[in-house]
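Lecture 7 notes: from sequence to structure.
We start with the chain below.
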Amino acid sequence: MIRLEVLQGENVGHAFDCDQPRVTLGRSPGSVVQISDYHLSNDHGVIFQEGDRYVYRDLRSTNGSMLLRGQKRVVLDGNDRWEVTIADGDKLLLGDAATPVILLCKIHDMPAESDEGQRIIATRSLSDLPSVTGKVERGPEVSALYGAIKTLGGRLELNETLEAVASAVFALLPRATHVSVLISEVGDEERFVPMLARSRAGSEPSVDPIMMSRAVLRRVLKDRSGVLAANAVVELGSSESIMGAQIRSTIGVPLWRGEKILGVIECDNRASSGLFTENDLDLLLVLAGQAALAIDNAWLYHELKVAEEKLRGENRYLKGRQQSVRFDNIIGEAPSMKTIFAQLEKVIDTRATVCISGETGTGKELIASAIHHQGKRREKMFVAQNCAALPENLLESELFGYKKGAFTGADHDKKGLFEIADCGTLFLDEIAEMSLTLQAKLLRVLQEGEVRPVGASRAHQVDVRIICATNKSLEQEVKSGRFREDLFYRLMVFPITLPPLRERREDIPLLAQHFLQRYTAEMRKAVAGVGQEAMNQLCSYHWPGNIRELENEIQRLVIQVNDGEIVGPEHLSPQIRRVENLVERVAPPRGTLKEMMEHVERWLLTQALKEHGNNKTQTAAALGITREGLHKKLSRYTIEAKLAGR
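Predicted structure tokens for the same chain:
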């Protein structure tokens, strides 16, 4: 008996106890298990018993079926597979893949088919194959065997190969009326499902060719041999499938993959005369050797096609996602960042040299990486080098490479980063720190597209896109003589200036949440979030280290805060918490509104001057006023000149 419990669908909660030999499923009123969900076919599938197993067969339904066994999924699409054996606890998923009807299968009291009293006419094991092959090659049927094997060649599709196997069997064995090919389920050598069943044209049309004998299959697997049984009703016991098909004689031979059985070919004669002989068994055994190779190749080809289609689909998805969300790894909603995104859209697919400027920690390398990975060079290398990290000689050999013997210790040739990044992108961070000598060599690369390794006698061509970054003003470096003017104009083809974090404070909550999610996942801590008061202080802080400083602060908070706890002001670093007592420190003495406002303004001016080393120009810029405006305010509040020094 099999019990089907509806776990999902319009009939959820219903259960069907079925002891019939054939259980139909579908929307049709005549179905044993009637399911009303619209996406099922009228005759969706059938469950029938074969020997000691239940088998589910999809009846070429519109939306298909699937069997779920633990984490393993078997899809029945009517092409390469349409039926599967059912084990206790399996789930059948019927209809629409997004919202399928789910049936839990519970199997009870499965009767076992007895094989006692079997008398096999002949068997052939794997060790007999060499002698059998030699015998067949010397026999009169060798030409017929060659012709049958020839039909298996040149086919890559699995369906075509299986059809060719059936045609070859019919051509080789004139007495065969029905042929089926059973293949083992992936990862399960004890479960075999019919992949193809055919009847010879002109044989009994009323007999279902799919119902082949499971008793023959079990005997083949048990003995690991080819089996010939004459008068199968007597020889193999009263198997229902044998009786129902009225089989008079049958042959089953294994399809070998090394020492493992890939599948089984069964053929039978359901006529009352002309029983199979041992010679028929020998011929089918030799044919099965070539059929196994053809089926194995076709199966491998099928798996490669599936994998290729999967990769093609993933590529389409990723490319579509790149086109719709081009800079999803860069967080920013501030107007200044939207301007940056607009600039990036214009430059990514060009060969133009890009110079990214901005304070330390503003994300210059992230922008450079986005330009490369969203552009036409994304399939090639993105190579980054900090020009301030190495002394001049080491930086030269790192960028340009060297030849063996160029200097002491150069015991082999070494490729430079320009060669490694050929057809890709080279990102030069802190470009202002590069020496004038190396600047001249870099200029030649930009002008001529040539690099010459240290110690080499000649240069060779490279195609590299240069993206550079600096936290200094290259114009000031040119004026001071520390940077070549001709290189400056070569690099500044498309300048991008990243705003400091204090000028895009509206992005601080977004960035804080992003880093919080990253480090809570990395450290597996359930931090509840950042409290509003703590967030207000994060937004009020001036962040001299920009995004890098904010990231480090959030990482420290995740380490410090307990699971389930909300980040509060007390968890923040001391330099950020200084704003807590701002009101108390600025609090003016009681008086008129004008007097209190003047007190606050005087205090702010004094603090700003201290923070900028009494530099009036920098103080005025930080306060958002002109230098002349600052002078007027200093005179108005009689702030000492020595304090305002410059």
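Points to note: DSSP finds 22 helices and 28 strands in the chain. The first strand starts at residue 2 and ends at 8.
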